[in-house]
Amino acid sequence: MSQTPSASAALRKRLLETPPHWTTLLALAVLLAIVAMALFAPRLANFAPTELNAMMRLKPADGTYWMGTDSFGRDLYSRVIYGARVSLMVGAGVAVGAIVIGLPLGLLAGWFRGLDAVLMRAMDGLMAIPGILLAIAIVALTDAGLTTVIIAIMLPEIPQVVRLVRSRVLATRSETFVEAAVLLGTRPMRMIWRHLLPSTVAPLIVQGTYIYASAILTEAALSFLGVGIGTETPTWGNIMAEGRLYFALNPWLVYWPAIVLSLCILSINLLGDALRDRLDPKMKGRS
After folding, report:
1. CA-to-CA distance for 264 and 284, rounded, in angstroms?
2. In the chain, what is the straight-line distance between the N-terminal and C-terminal CA atoms, in Å?
3. Tens of pLDDT, residues 233-244
4. How far apart are the C-alpha atoms of 78 and 50, rounded to whole Å?
5. Residue 82: which of 234, 246, 287 has the closest Cα?
6. Which one is predicted more confidently, 143 or 110?
7. Architecture of domain 23-281 in this structure
8. Phi and psi of 75, rounded to 5°?
9. Nearest to 150 by CA among 97, 194, 107, 197
10. Phi/psi of residue 172, each to 5°?
11. What is the mean pLDDT of residues 186-212?
């Protein structure tokens, strides 16, 4: 008998059994505001993000330029809200890609003993390379387009997903209902799909939020270092990189994108913590 319906029901029950904490609601509101800002950027922006105005260079905030202007006279507010689009797309692409690739690899490693050693040694080798250095190397050797940046940030995240899924499979395969299914001659792929996959949903949801936040921060770091997405496309990282040259006299060039970036990452992490506490109560209160 399939475990999927009961697993889904248990997941819904854990998500809805108690009202969320006020910090969770605040984090959700902030994140939704940033998402709305990105989606409706063309309507919310006062100017095009690349519109130059040499007469308005480095102007502080006023009624026309709500966050001031940069060294090229571009409206900082418009560039920050357009930068949200890139950051959110990178985060979503990395999180979805890492899970789509890591999930089947983790399922196979956890169930098939022969593949386990090979796959996990490959994952260990990938994890041995610092993620930011691997991303810099990939972007530096190729073009710095959006797809390349997503792939470069995604690769170091895949081993985490593989190890998480594998650990859940190893724990689940010792359950009585799995052993009974094996004795009844259930095919391996059917076993994985109907009995093992549902057990990975809850931890993957939580892990996905952390990957999302980490990817946004890594993209900002790459852009700040000058090896991320080109400056013709505004991102929070390259806005700060351009602004740091004028930080002493015009600190708002760095402050505004840094504040929005920090709020975005903090809200995602708070939501991830809330999901972790609900979906895995044993982890509640741990760092």
Report:
1. 23
2. 37
3. 899 999 999 999
4. 9
5. 234
6. 110
7. Orthogonal Bundle (1.10)
8. -70, 115
9. 97
10. -75, -35
11. 83
Domain extent listing, the chain = 23-281
| DSSP structure class, residue 75 | B
The pTM (predicted TM-score) of the whole model is 0.85
Longest dimension (CA), the chain: 78
What count of Cα atoms within 13 Å lies in the side-chain half-sphere of residue 224? 18
Res. 33: pLDDT tops 90: yes
Residue 95: helix, strand or coil by DSSP? helix
Integer Cα distance of 198 and 194 in angstroms: 7
| pLDDT at res. 8 | 59
User: SS3 of 229, please?
Assistant: coil
Q: Comparing C-alpha atoms, which of 138, 152, 141 is closest to residue 219?
A: 152
Residue 187 in tokens:
């095919």
Q: Of the segments 32-41, 105-114, 136-145, 161-170, which one has the largest average pLDDT value?
A: 32-41
* 8 A C-beta contact, residue 241 and residue 248: no
Residue that is written with structure tokens 């990105």 in the block: 38
